Amino acid sequence: MSFSDYLLLFGGMGLVTYLPRALPLLYLAHRKMPQGLIDWLSLIPVAILSALLAPALFTDNATRSLEFGKLELLVAVPTLIFALKTRSLGGSVLVGMLLYWLGGMIY
Amino acid sequence: MTPTRDHKQTLRHGASAGWPICLGYFPIGLALGVLAQKAGLPWWAVALMSVLVFAGSAQFICVAMLTAGASTSAIILTTFFVNLRHVLMSSALAVYLQRVNRAFLALYAYGVTDESFAVNLTRFREGGWDRWRALIVNHLANAVWITATTSGALVGQFVPQGALGIDYALTGMFICLLVFQLQGRLYVFTGLLAAALSVVWYLLIPGDSYIVGASMSAATVGYLLKRHYRRGR
After folding, report:
1. ipTM score
2. Residue ranges of the domains in chain B?
């Protein structure tokens, strides 16, 4: 990819990242958002994170088929328990990486 | 009290509230830089991305999608939906930033991330917090993020493939961010539904529409369920 390809991609990503952050602050500060929209939006993060994780853990991405024995899934269980107990973002990343690294040597 | 001392104190308070974010950002930023470098992005592209798009998970997804050969429009659309949650966060922050001038808000909005939102909103709610301290938290986190991601891209070439489980950084971060989102049974239900839908969608429909499709469907079902129970009572 050339410099202008990257600029187009990141410029576009930057715009769609910035506008949802800026518009509510700039315009909705004095108005009330409809409750239905607030309720719906509050469920979006958990849904997106699950939709990102589940196919990576439960499917083989090369053949696009179900797979329940992946190392990614085995490591996800202790990582999830660690995250639930400590609620530490940096710690969970490091624990996941360490277990995946060790698991890759024996699995 | 001299203005200089005031500025120093504001800076110190902002830094002391922001340091846990920076600590968390450093390894993640480094990991992102390494992954991006492995995906073929030059270091300057990583720096450019971190300056233009200050959004950790969207940047990870971008690298993953570039690796998978996704189109520019698909990556931008996914970024939009992944970062749509910040509408909620900015709305909540607006309560504490009323009658603040637009130039400040425009600058502040750039640094609204999950982490800076969580830290600043908690501080605002507790009192004794102001917009300048909050702005310092945002921009300190951003400075660390740009430094960490660019460093990762620069040293990435010296890190052998699969070393230290760096490939799992993305998954580990999503698992923990998911845990942060589980604020009740409705959230657990929506998460499980989105997981099931995304797997089925991924298996049946080619392309990467499963992320947006499954998450919007699951959130809609969760919302309807909530509304149904609210009416039922």
Report:
1. 0.84
2. 3-160, 182-233
User: Are A39 and B227 inside 8 Å of each other by CB?
Assistant: yes
**Closest-CA residue of chain B to A89:** B176
CA nearest B95 in A: which residue?
A29
- Burial grade of B72 (CB within 10 A; 0-12, 13-18, 19 or more): middle
Does B23 sit within 8 Å of A38, measured CB to CB? Answer: no
**Tens-digit pLDDT profile for residues B112-152:** 987 788 778 777 877 889 899 999 999 999 999 999 999 99
* Chain A residue numbers touching B88 (CB-CB < 8 A): 38, 41-42
**DSSP conformation class of A34:** P
Q: What is the pLDDT of residues B15-24, one digit of tens each?
A: 877 776 777 7
Q: Beta strand A59-60 with A65-66: parallel, antiparallel or unpaired?
A: antiparallel
Does the distance separating the beta carbons of B172 and A41 come in below 8 Å? Answer: no
| Token output for A51 | 């939709």
Contact between chains at A44 and B28 (C-beta distance less than 8 A): no
